Structures are given as C-alpha cells and as structure tokens.
C-alpha cells in the first residue's frame, strides 16, 4: 500500500516538476519576446519614418520658410524656433531646477517644506502638457497681454520640465560619495565651497547626460506650445526672428498644425519630412548625451 | 600679520555660504509658487462655468450633450472617452511594460541591457506628434484594412498608440521597483528550489508591489494627459464610443480641437478651462495615489 502511494506521489511530484519547468521556460520565452519586441518596434519606427521622409529632405525643405496655401513650403523657421525656444527654456530651467535640486539634496532636512517642494515638483511633472499650455494661455497670452510669444512658450515649458531636471540634479549629487564631502569639510571648506568645488564637478558627467536628454524632450514638446507660442512663424521682418515677444511655431507644432488645420495641398509631404527631422533630432540628442557623458567621466577618472 | 587676512577670507566664505543657501532656498520655494500659481489660475478660470455662467457642475459632469452655444456643456462623453483610452492603454501596455521591466531587472544579459537602455530613452524622447503621425500613416490604414473600421480613426487606434507611449514610463519604473527588492529574498527562494519564474511570480512581484503600483499609476497619468497623439487618431466626434472601432473624443483632444476657435469669455471657453481643471485634479489625485502606494509597507 505504502509502496503504491509512494509511487503515486512520486509520479505526481514528477508531473509537478515538469509543469514547473515548462512554466519557467514559457515565462522565459515570453519575457525575452517582450523585450526584443521593444527593440524591434523602435527599429521599425525608425526605418518607417526614414522610408516616409527621406525623399522630402532637401536643402530647400530644411531652410525655406513655410507656405500658407500653396505647395512647396519648407520648415526652416520652425527648426530655428524649436532651437530658440529650447534655448530660452534651458536658460530658465537650468538655474531654478539645479538650485532646487541642490537645496533638496544637500541642505534640506526632512520636514514640511521639503515634503511640499517634492509634492509640488511631482504634481508639476504629472500635469498634462496641454493643461500647462492653457495655464500659459491664461497668464502669458491673456493676463500679461504678450499674445503668442516664444517667451511665453518657453516659460510654460520651464514649468513642465523643472521637476525632471531637479530629479537629475538630485540623483547626480546623490551619486557622489559622502566621503568626498567629508574630506572637503574637514579641510575647512564651507558647505557651499564643498558643493561648488567638489560635489558638482564630481557629478558633472551624470548631470550633463541628464540635461542633454531633457533638452531632447523639450525640443519635441508640442501640446504646451500650441496656445502659448502659437501656430504661425513670426510675421516680423524675417520668419527667422530673435525677438522673444513674437509668435514662434516650432517644428513639432508645425507637424500637428499642417495635418489638423493647415490648407497646403502637400501636408503629407511636410508631415513626413518634419516627422523624420524630429526623429533625427531625438537620436542626435541621445547620442550627444552619451558621448558627452562618456567624455566627461573619462576626463574625470583619468585626471 | 596674517590674522586679519584669514579672518576676512573666512568671513567672505561664510557670507557666500549664507547667500548661496538663500538663493538655493528661493529656487526651491519657486517650485511651490509655480505649482500654486498653476492650481489657482486654472481653478479660477475653470470655475467660471459654474459661477459666471451659472451652469451646474452636475450638468458639466453628468450630461452627454456638448453644446456650449445653447448652454449645454456636458462633458461626460469626453470623460468616458478619456477613461476608455486610458483603460485600454494600461490593460495592454501595463503588463507588457512590467514584463520588460522584469526582463531588464532579472534576465537581461549585459549586452542586451546596454542596447535597451538607449532604446527606452529614445522612445521617451520621440515627440507625441511623431507617435500621432505614426498612428495616422501606419495604424489607421491598418485598422481600416484589417478590422473593418470605416475611417481607421477611433478608440482602438488611439489605444494602441497610447499603449506604446506609456511603455517607457512603465518599463523603467517597474525595473527600478524590482531592482530594489533585497537580494536575500530572491536567493532564499532559489535556495528552496523554486524556479526562476516561481521566484519572480511568488516572491519578487509581491515584494515590489508598491513600486509596481507607482509604475502603473504614472503610466495612467501619462495616458490620460496625452493630447496630440490621441487627437490625431481618435476621430474627434463628441459621441460615446459604440465599440473599439468607433470615433470619439477625450478631455484633452476636445481642448486641443476647440480652444483655438473659442471666443474669450464664452461658455465654450469656460467649459474647456473646466476640463483642463478637471485634468489637473485627476493628475494631483494620481500623485496622491503614488504617495499612498509608497507609504504602504510591502
């Protein structure tokens, strides 16, 4: 009897064992499949966007001003505006976000103030881009009577991207070992001297990588700009306009606008070309972030 | 002779210290000011519909008819639309993202992990209009040809685009959550003879529960707030979706579509601001959810 029971339980245990192994194998296959499909998906997107847009890219397309109603318009001023608004946004975002990040990481003690700053930063990061755009519309366009301006767009983007750069700053500073701060303070340096001469230079590689990646994201922001920076290029003396108080349609806004509201007959061509340029810029910012990060950390470790 | 020189250098250093501290504190305070300004201005413009136009919040939240010219700014269609695409995105993209997160934290060989990190960063960086453009030129014709959709625009197309867009958020946060599980838990489970999958399913996933919840909540936040990619493929008609293939609208797409032509001070404009305020409240509610999930011991 016991022998039979034993062999029965042995058989069921073997069954269980093989089920376990099959489940493990299946899970492994599924997980590998999911991961590989992400890489393939991106490769496919990149290939497809090149296939769509490669034919439309020309010197004329990249530099000529857009056309309102006839075919053959370019995207030159929009590319310029994208960089210009990115530049303005970084001018506001970098000091404030790094200041707040340094304060939270190096000075702040846990308490109501720290919690509030962190809660506000997380909330700002979660507010939908279009909602922030309406805030910009209320304050910069209407209340301050700026109308649609590059500056209003940049300030709106600043609010959206402050939290990400704060996080990058905090993580960068956290990666610097405590002992370096202690060494500096033991030599009689004040806290600020320590941060400026020891901590920040040691964190330069992750900070640079993070800032460039965020810049890449700001370059492609769209929803927040439609009702703040506007959907047309400047009507000033030239469509390439350095004034922060003129309308400044960016490339990503142009892609949306020509598709949704535009009147040009070659909207598909402009869309294909703009999508490809935007993709190439994203790739370029990513490569730049990586190269700079590697160069800086190399310089730091070899010195 | 040297005394006063040292003293003045040290006073200067201390002066610098307090200036730096004040400036940094001001930068942090600016974050609070910014958030307060956003909430206040959106709340004040978003409540005009109720206080200036005297429209009941119940009409706004509970009615299907969106006809602001005739004082009927019912936003229920858009609320349902937003919830539908968001649920679709999280049901499809959520498990997918967590699976990749598991892969990256547990299985990935170093080389593949080194390839996937930039892949995910690029997916984050691709602008939403480019996702919309892909949906428009690739997915909409595909659903038209293969699922019998008339236009190709609707819930299904928008949901798929959103599922892809939330992937990077879900992947990186769930990877972090799983990595932060203490190694001893995993080792203990393996030592008891559990397979890798049993360890993942019965030990790691429960242990990382709060972090995974955060990953999914922030995925939801990203999905419900996305405007342009959805607007380009959802069809934008203010009717309840009858199925996955029928066109509809969401809160964000309605704002994008009609804000440009809304007259200042009109019921239409006020209704759109109310929708923006509603989205702001949803975003803040999700952050409160994130905080609650992180406080809960796992």
Question: Quick recap of the structure?
Answer:
Chain A is mostly helical and 303 residues long.
Q: Spatial order of the strands in the main sheet of chain B?
A: 1-2
Would you state the CATH class of the largest domain in chain A? Mainly Alpha
Helix share of residues of chain A? over 70%
Task: Choose one word for the global shape of chain A.
Answer: globular
SSE topology sketch:
The complex is a heterodimer of chains A (303) and B (298).
Chain A lengths: L1 H52 L5 H5 L12 H32 L4 H15 L2 H15 L6 H25 L3 H9 L4 H12 L1 H16 L3 H4 L24 H10 L6 H36 L1
Helix pairs in contact in A: 1-12, 3-6, 3-9, 4-6, 5-6, 6-9, 7-8, 9-12, 11-12
Chain B lengths: L2 H44 L1 H4 L5 H6 L3 E2 L4 E2 L2 H32 L2 H16 L2 H19 L8 H25 L3 H9 L4 H12 L1 H17 L2 H6 L17 H9 L7 H29 L3
Antiparallel strand pairs in B: 1-2
Helix pairs in contact in B: 1-13, 4-7, 4-10, 4-12, 5-7, 6-7, 7-10, 8-9, 10-13, 12-13
Give an account of the 3D structure.
- The complex is a heterodimer of chains A (303) and B (298).
- Chain A has 303 residues and is mostly helical.
- Helix content of chain A is 76%, strand content 0%.
- The mean pLDDT of chain A is 90.
- In chain B, strands 1-2 form a two-stranded antiparallel ribbon.
- Helices cover 77% and strands 1% of the residues of chain B.
- In chain B, helix 4 packs across helix 10, helix 4 crosses helix 12 and helix 6 packs across helix 7.
- Chain B is globular, with a radius of gyration of 25 Å.
- Chain B is mostly helical and 298 residues long.
- The mean pLDDT of chain B is 91.
- Chains A and B meet through helix 1, helix 3, helix 4, helix 5 and helix 6 of A and helix 1, helix 4, helix 5, helix 6 and helix 7 of B.
State the main characteristics.
heterodimer; A: 303 residues; mainly alpha; MetI-like fold; globular; B: 298 residues; 2 domains; two-stranded antiparallel ribbon; 2 strands; 1% strand
């Amino acid at each position: 009897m016991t022998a039979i029971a034993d062999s029965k339980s042995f058989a069921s245990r073997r069954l269980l064992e093989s089920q376990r192994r099959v489940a493990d194998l299946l899970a492994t296959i599924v997980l590998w499949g999911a991961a590989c499909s992400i890489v393939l998906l991106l490769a496919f997107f990149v290939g497809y966007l090149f296939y769509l847009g490669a034919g439309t890219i020309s010197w004329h397309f990249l530099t000529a001003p857009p056309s309102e109603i006839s075919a053959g318009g370019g995207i030159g001023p929009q590319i310029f505006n994208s960089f210009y608004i990115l530049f303005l946004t970084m001018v506001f975002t970098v000091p404030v976000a790094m200041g707040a990040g340094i304060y939270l990481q190096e000075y702040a003690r846990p308490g109501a103030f720290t919690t509030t700053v962190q809660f506000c930063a997380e909330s700002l990061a979660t507010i939908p881009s279009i909602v922030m755009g309406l805030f910009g519309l209320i304050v910069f366009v209407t209340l301050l009577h700026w109308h649609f301006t590059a500056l209003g767009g940049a300030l709106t983007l600043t609010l959206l991207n402050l939290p990400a750069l704060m996080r990058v700053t905090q993580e960068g500073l956290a990666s610097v070992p405590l002992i370096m701060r202690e060494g500096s303070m033991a030599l009689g340096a004040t806290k600020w001297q320590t941060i400026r001469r020891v901590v920040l230079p040691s964190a330069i590689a992750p900070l640079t990588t993070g800032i460039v990646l965020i810049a890449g994201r700001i370059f492609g922001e769209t929803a927040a700009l439609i009702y703040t920076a506007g959907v047309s290029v400047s009507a000033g003396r030239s469509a390439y306009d350095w004034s922060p108080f003129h309308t400044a349609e960016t490339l990503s806004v142009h892609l949306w606008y020509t598709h949704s509201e535009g009147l040009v007959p070659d909207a598909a061509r402009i869309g294909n070309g703009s999508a490809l340029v935007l993709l190439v810029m994203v790739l370029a910012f990513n490569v730049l972030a990586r190269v700079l990060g590697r160069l800086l950390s190399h310089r730091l470790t070899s010195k | 002779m040297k005394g006063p020189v040292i003293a003045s250098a040290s006073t200067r250093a201390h002066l610098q210290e307090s200036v730096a501290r004040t400036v940094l504190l001001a930068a942090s305070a600016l974050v609070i000011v910014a958030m307060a300004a956003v909430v206040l201005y959106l709340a004040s413009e978003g409540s005009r519909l109720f206080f200036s136009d005297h429209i009941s919040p119940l009409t706004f939240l509970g009615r299907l008819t969106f006809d602001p010219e005739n004082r009927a700014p019912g936003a229920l269609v858009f609320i349902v639309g937003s919830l539908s695409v968001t649920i679709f995105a999280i049901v499809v993209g959520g498990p997918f993202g967590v699976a990749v997160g598991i892969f990256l934290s547990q299985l990935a060989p170093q080389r593949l992990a080194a390839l996937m990190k930039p892949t995910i960063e690029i997916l984050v960086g691709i602008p939403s209009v480019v996702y919309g453009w892909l949906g428009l030129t690739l997915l909409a014709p595909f659903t038209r040809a293969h699922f019998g959709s008339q236009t190709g625009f609707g819930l299904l197309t928008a949901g798929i685009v959103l599922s892809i867009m939330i992937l990077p958020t879900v992947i990186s946060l769930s990877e972090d959550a799983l990595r932060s599980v203490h190694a001893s838990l995993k080792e203990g489970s393996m030592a008891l003879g559990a397979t890798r999958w049993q360890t993942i399913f019965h030990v790691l996933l429960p242990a990382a529960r709060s972090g995974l919840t955060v990953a999914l909540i922030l995925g939801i936040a990203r999905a419900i707030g996305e405007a342009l990619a959805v607007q380009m493929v959802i069809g934008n008609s203010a009717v309840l979706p009858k199925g996955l293939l029928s066109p509809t609208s969401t809160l964000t797409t309605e704002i994008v579509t009609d804000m440009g032509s809304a007259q200042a001070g009109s019921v239409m404009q006020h209704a759109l601001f109310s929708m923006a305020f509603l989205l702001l409240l949803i975003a803040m509610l999700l952050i409160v959810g994130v905080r609650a999930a992180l406080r809960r011991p796992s």
